[in-house]
């Protein structure tokens, strides 16, 4: 069974947010951190995973990504703070985390 993730990344100042979807969160976060993704994330130095959700369905993941992208910035910040109040880089904890799938 394939798993899909919606994730939010930020920069070290937490003043830019990037929302994406992937089927391999480990690889995708590493691509952002190593600046292998050209464009927005490279330009704004997006290299810190601050939030993610797991899904069993690509359709559910894409719908959630679309929903989050349409949210006001404050709502996104509140969502992040609800599970990551210190805005730590969660990529260090990925291998230890228990994913909640929707």
Task: Describe it.
With 102 residues, the protein is an alpha+beta fold. It has one domain: GIY-YIG endonuclease. The protein contains 4 helices and 3 strands. Strands 2-1-3 form a 3-stranded antiparallel beta sheet, sandwiched between helices.
User: For the largest beta sheet, what order do the strands appear in spatially?
Assistant: 2-1-3
Give the helix tally.
4
Shape: globular
Low-confidence stretches: none
The largest sheet, given as strand count, sense and whether it forms a barrel, is:
3 strands, antiparallel
Helix/strand-derived class?
A: alpha+beta
- What helical percentage do the residues reach? 25-40%
Distance between the termini: 14 Å
Radius of gyration: 13 Å
CATH class: Alpha Beta
């Amino acid at each position: 069974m394939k798993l899909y993730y919606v994730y939010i990344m930020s920069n070290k100042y937490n003043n830019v947010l990037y929302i994406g979807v992937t089927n391999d969160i480990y690889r995708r976060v590493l691509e952002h951190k190593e600046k292998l993704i050209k464009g927005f994330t490279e330009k704004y130095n997006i290299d810190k995973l601050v939030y993610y959700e797991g899904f069993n369905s690509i359709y559910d993941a894409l719908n959630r990504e679309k929903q989050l992208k349409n949210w006001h910035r404050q709502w996104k910040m509140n969502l992040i703070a609800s599970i990551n109040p210190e805005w730590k880089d969660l990529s260090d904890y990925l291998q230890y985390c228990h994913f909640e799938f929707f």
